[in-house]
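Hi support team,

I've been running sequence recovery on a batch of backbones for a student project. Most finish fine, but this one hangs at about 90% for roughly twenty minutes before it completes. I'm not sure whether the input is malformed or the queue is just slow. I've pasted the structure tokens below so you can try to reproduce it. Let me know if you need the job ID as well.

Thanks,
M.K.
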């Protein structure tokens, strides 16, 4: 038995299309085995439906040919030996084995046969006695959601997740066949967003000749696909939603095409050197605006940007507030800056490292940060000195009132400043911090509250690292005045990160 549901799994649902004829059922499996063997990029499961008919059908309803499904189930009855023969043929043709139980005794059969997976039909999605029995098994579970309310899906996902089951849910429309306008393939997006970490698939009942729907579902990110299948004969014609071997071949070819076109989706593409060279040729190069002497720090006013770039030249894509350039040799006016005449240092990694340490301190403090809050690094004298002098701020709200979290790393100092308009209150949440107000220093611990009125010079440093909740009147960008005017003169003293939580 498998230990987990594979991705790009295609489930071929025989249902009652064996027609109660074991020879026909075996031929169905063989013909689809021939089809699926030429698609090694996919995993395949063949699925049966199990009902313990002697207990499943009410005694008063047995033999009733006027009741559609009672008649259908009774006429297509197979013995346990027949089902054993079908599952053996599935394995012989390379299929994973799978069955849908509609009652508890059928789960016993699935376990006894050591099938690979259990399917929960849409009609059984909230059959709690059956779900309890299925959850008691050790098998992976795939459940269809046709007709289920959002509350139903929430409850079943919670039920399976809390029992640490390996499971997936399928978007499904329970109309046979399903018209195109009722497919609602966008539900795959909805389910993926609502249940992150749960694999989402698609159980399909459209016209079997339609090969467009599977492309859409794969592009939406479905990882499991289910279709009713059968082999038409003079004695056993197919219904309007079951696919023949030829139709399944077309369905899989369409899925293969979609898989190829969608390409890599779980990570960034590997580097394409030809693409990179082509794009580089369209960039602007960095050129000296004046004669630059060896040893000089090259600043924005010392250069200009122009097209086309020379081979090996520094381009505008390299020029950012994270980058510093020092001339290693004299550079004449209009000469290209390059690795041969300039030392290039990128401090972006220092910014990311600082963000990760802030994240670790927040985790240690057990303080929950609202999702999507930007992280603002203040590196007053440059990122190189951030560990010595700096601060990290997370602005939770800034209206007529303002709330921030101030994070100070161990031994990091925040330089002295004051505000003319803003009044603020510091509430120490984590760590110890030495706060200096107008030259007077005191040590504060978690739970301590400090008021800072407008005009009061304040600075702080923490040997342990600390987190301070700052509650204040509205924060204005131009209302922070530093004692050291060199800080205010530094236009690149802040870095804002948005996707720092991942």
């Amino acid at each position: 038995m498998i230990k987990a549901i594979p991705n790009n799994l295609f489930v071929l649902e025989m249902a009652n299309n064996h027609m109660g004829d074991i020879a026909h059922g075996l031929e169905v499996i063989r013909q689809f085995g021939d089809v699926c063997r030429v698609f090694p990029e996919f995993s395949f499961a063949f699925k049966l439906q199990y009902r313990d008919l002697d207990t499943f059908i009410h005694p008063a309803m047995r033999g009733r040919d006027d009741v559609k499904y009672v008649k259908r189930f009774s006429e297509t009855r197979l013995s346990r030996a027949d089902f054993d023969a079908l599952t053996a043929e599935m394995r012989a043709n390379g299929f994973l084995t799978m069955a849908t139980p509609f009652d508890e005794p059928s789960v016993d059969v699935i376990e006894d046969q050591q099938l690979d997976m259990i399917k929960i039909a849409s009609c059984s999605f909230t059959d709690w006695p059956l779900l309890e029995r299925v959850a008691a098994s050790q098998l992976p579970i795939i459940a269809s959601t046709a007709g289920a309310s959002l509350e139903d899906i929430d409850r079943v996902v919670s039920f399976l997740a809390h029992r640490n089951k390996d499971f997936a849910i399928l978007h499904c429309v329970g109309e046979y066949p399903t018209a195109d306008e009722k497919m609602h393939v966008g539900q795959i997006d909805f389910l993926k967003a609502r249940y992150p970490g749960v694999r989402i698939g698609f159980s399909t009942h459209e016209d079997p000749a339609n090969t467009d729907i599977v492309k859409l579902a794969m592009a939406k990110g479905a990882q499991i696909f289910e279709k009713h299948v059968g082999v038409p004969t003079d004695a056993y014609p197919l219904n309007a939603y079951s696919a023949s071997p030829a139709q399944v071949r077309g369905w899989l070819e369409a899925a293969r095409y979609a898989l190829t076109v969608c390409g890599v989706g779980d990570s960034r593409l590997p580097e394409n050197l030809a693409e990179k060279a082509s794009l580089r040729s369209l960039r602007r190069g960095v050129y000296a605006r004046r004669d630059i002497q060896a040893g000089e720090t090259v600043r924005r006013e010392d250069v200009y940007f122009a097209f086309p770039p020379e081979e090996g030249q520094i381009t505008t894509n390299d020029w950012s507030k994270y980058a510093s350039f020092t001339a290693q040799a004299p550079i004449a006016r209009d000469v290209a800056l390059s690795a041969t005449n300039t030392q290039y240092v990128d401090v972006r990694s220092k910014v990311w490292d600082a963000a990760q340490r802030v994240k670790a301190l927040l985790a240690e403090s057990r303080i929950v940060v609202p999702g999507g809050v930007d992280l603002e690094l203040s590196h007053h004298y440059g990122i190189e000195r951030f560990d010595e002098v700096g601060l990290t701020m997370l602005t939770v709200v800034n209206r007529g009132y303002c709330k921030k979290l101030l994070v100070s790393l161990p031994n990091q100092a925040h330089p002295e400043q004051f505000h003319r308009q803003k009044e603020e209150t510091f509430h120490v949440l984590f760590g110890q911090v030495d706060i200096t107000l107008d030259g007077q220093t005191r040590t504060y611990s978690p739970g301590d509250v400090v008021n800072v009125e407008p005009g009061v010079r304040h600075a702080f440093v923490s040997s342990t690292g600390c987190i301070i909740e700052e509650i204040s009147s509205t924060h204005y960008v131009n209302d922070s005045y530093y004692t050291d005017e060199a800080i205010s003169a530094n236009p690149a003293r802040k870095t804002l990160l948005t996707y720092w939580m991942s």
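--
Follow-up from support: It reproduced on our side and the slowdown came from queue contention, not your input. The chain has a mean pLDDT of 93. No action needed from you.
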